[in-house]
Amino acid sequence: MSDLYDPWYEHPCLVLDTETTGLDLQDRVVQLGLARFEQGKLVDSWSTLVWAGIEIPQQATDIHGISTADIADAPPWSAAIPKIVSMSRGAHVAAYNEAFDKRMFFAEMSRVRVDMQSLPLPIFQSSNRWIDPLIWIRSIDRFEKGAGRHKLVKVCERRGIVLGKAHDAVSDAVAAGEVLWSMRHEIGDMTVTELLRQQQLLSDAQERQFAAWRSRQPPKGVGR
Prior knowledge:
Layout: E1 13-20, E2 29-38, E3 41-49, H1 58-64, H2 81-88, E4 92-94, H3 98-111, H4 133-140, H5 152-159, H6 169-182, H7 184-187, H8 192-215
């Protein structure tokens, strides 16, 4: 790992994205995408389909285009671990809406018989925080209006970033990394430690705002 006092954007960063069978913890990852950035430049990217062991619901296929037939011959999650190891060495981890991808990542890791102590890398330590471009874009682009304004595809449109294919894991990972890099001047020259501390403060504030908004909504079935 490079000097911890360097600005966050000078550190290598591995951006991770998953496509899944659904949004609940019991759901499974069907595609993993990784994109490694070094000083803002994409130096490596990789993607794999993953055999989930369960049927992919049609509503999930409608989003990411991956069907049960597509993953019938895909490798299990465990087969992706060597690539995760090689691409994450010396890098901080990021994900767009990291709370979801991190949860799905560790759910899959818990299903394989791997000694986490034998994988002494930050990505395999659940207590380590990941950088989340979504939290930062909500703060920096907070005056943007419109439904879905913070969705990755909308953010890419505003910032002139090419998103190869929305809801393709590696395309989303690459785009999320480019979104993060595009905010380097707006975020500033803070260290990774300070960035993560500020990110947590922003996340807590945003959650309070969401909670206040939800409390003002009428119960379902009330009103028009």
